[in-house]
């Protein structure tokens, strides 16, 4: 359960980071 919680948290952070990178890239272009 602890591992699953940590994985979910990491996945959420990763998706947020990915969205931010895409947004910044679009703004740069």
What report would you give on this structure?
The longest helix has 27 residues, at 2-28. The chain has 29 residues and is an all-alpha fold. It is built from one helix and no strands. It has one domain (1-29). The termini are far apart.
Query: Roughly how much helix do the residues carry, as a percent range?
Result: over 70%
Instruction: Tell me the structural class.
Output: mainly alpha
How is the main sheet built?
Answer: none
Quick one: how many beta strands? Answer: 0
Q: In percent terms, what proportion of residues is strand?
A: under 5%
Oligomer: single chain
The outline comes out as rod-shaped
Number of helical regions? 1
- When the domains are counted, the total is 1
Rg, nearest Å = 13 Å
What's the pLDDT, averaged over the residues? 89
Distance between the termini: 42 Å
What string gives the helices and strands in order? H
Low-pLDDT parts are none
């Amino acid at each position: 359960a602890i591992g699953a919680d940590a994985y979910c948290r990491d996945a959420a952070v990763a998706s947020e980071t990915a969205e931010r990178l895409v947004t910044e890239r679009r703004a740069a272009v």
